[in-house]
């Protein structure tokens, strides 16, 4: 194979390594190698000591070009499963495989499940949801059944702590009899299990908002006081200490392109708003190393099962990374 000559940050020692990794069979560009080079160029503008390496934006460990395939992974922002739910545009960066498998597996699921919860509660999701159904009438024993619920039906699929098929079938027959006879006087309680903890969902949104800020600012946010403090909490798994960090958008389930705006007034509420995975995430400004913005927004907001609902407040907002004004206006109520 004929090497493709590239120079990264004036270091010609990287030429052979990158040329081997950038091309696969048929001389097609290796996307991960090309993205590695782009990130390396951006990092060198901010820290000349990075040389031929890049850093994982989550753990901040350095990785050399030789480790592209063995230690590094693509990271989609927002995660693919969440983006597909609402038709949101995805960005892409590179993280280490360790962070991808730990933070990724934990938070990606919580992000998707929280978004499903929001969509379902807003009547915008008709997929299956697991849960239980219970009757208070003592004639039905045992009193609880596992279910799968959709917008069109409810199906009994098992009995808690009972593995025998005949036990499940007894419950199904009893529920069918009640439904067929249109029994009057029965009371039922349905509990749906959306499969997430709200604290984990908040942490998941903070992580993907941090990664989007890292991508759209061409890595600069990761070097800021606010970015470094947020990254420390990500590394130490302490993001839940910040409390609620999501502002409920005007319209649930807005897709389109993620965006970032800066809240400039009033001064106590200064922060970044990052819209990603259908929600608005509060993010500290680059110079906010104390992360004071979270307490300020929590103090003027009412918390509901979706996130923070601020009291009516006049804000001054400056667009930073907004590709489509309509995507922004669907989420935020603008004053006339």
Multimeric status of the protein: single chain
The major pleated sheet works out as:
5 strands, antiparallel
Order of helices and strands: HHEEHEHEHEEEHEHHEEEEHEEEH
What is the alpha-carbon Rg in Å? Answer: 25 Å
**What is the domain tally?**
4
Please, how many helices?
A: 10
End-to-end Cα distance: 62 Å
- Beta-strand content estimate: 15-25%
Number of strands: 15
- Which descriptor suits the 3D outline? globular
Mean pLDDT: 85
Helix- and strand-based class?
alpha+beta
Low-confidence stretches: 1-28
Order of adjacent strands in the largest pleated sheet: 9-12-11-10-15
Helix content: 25-40%
Please sum up the structure shown.
This protein has helices at residues 15-22, 31-46, 68-71, 80-86, 97-121, 165-181, 198-216, 225-235, 293-299, 325-331; strands spanning 54-55, 62-63, 72-77, 91-96, 129-135, 144-149, 154-158, 188-193, 246-247, 259-265, 271-276, 279-283, 301-303, 308-310, 316-321.
């Amino acid at each position: 194979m004929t090497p493709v000559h590239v120079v990264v940050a004036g270091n010609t020692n990287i030429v052979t390594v990158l040329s081997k990794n950038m091309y696969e069979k048929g001389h097609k560009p290796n996307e991960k190698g090309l993205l590695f080079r782009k990130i390396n160029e951006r990092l060198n503008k901010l820290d000349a000591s990075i040389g031929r390496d890049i850093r994982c934006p989550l753990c901040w460990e350095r990785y050399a070009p030789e480790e592209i395939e063995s230690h590094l992974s693509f990271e989609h922002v927002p995660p693919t499963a969440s983006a597909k739910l609402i038709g949101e545009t995805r960005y892409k960066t590179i993280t280490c495989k360790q962070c991808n498998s730990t933070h990724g597996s934990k938070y990606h699921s919580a992000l998707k499940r929280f978004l499903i919860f929001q969509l379902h509660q807003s009547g915008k999701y008709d997929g299956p949801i697991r849960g239980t159904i219970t009757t208070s009438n003592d004639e039905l024993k045992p009193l609880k059944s596992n279910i799968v619920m959709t917008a069109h039906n409810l199906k009994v699929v098992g009995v808690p702590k009972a593995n025998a098929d005949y036990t499940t079938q007894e419950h199904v027959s009893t529920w069918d009899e009640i439904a067929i006879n249109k029994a009057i006087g029965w009371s039922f309680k349905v509990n749906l299990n959306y499969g997430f903890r709200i604290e984990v969902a908040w942490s998941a949104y903070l992580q993907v908002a941090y990664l989007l800020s890292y991508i759209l600012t061409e890595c600069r946010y990761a070097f800021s006081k606010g970015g470094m403090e947020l990254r420390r909490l990500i590394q130490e798994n302490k993001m839940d200490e910040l409390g609620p960090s999501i502002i409920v958008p005007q319209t649930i389930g807005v897709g389109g392109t993620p965006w970032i705006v800066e809240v400039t007034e009033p001064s106590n509420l200064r922060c970044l708003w990052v819209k990603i995975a259908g929600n608005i995430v509060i993010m500290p400004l680059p110079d906010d190393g104390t992360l004071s913005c979270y307490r300020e927004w929590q103090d003027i907001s009412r918390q509901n099962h979706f996130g923070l609902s601020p009291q009516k407040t006049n804000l001054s907002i400056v667009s930073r990374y907004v590709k489509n004004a309509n995507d922004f206006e669907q989420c935020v109520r603008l004053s006339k």
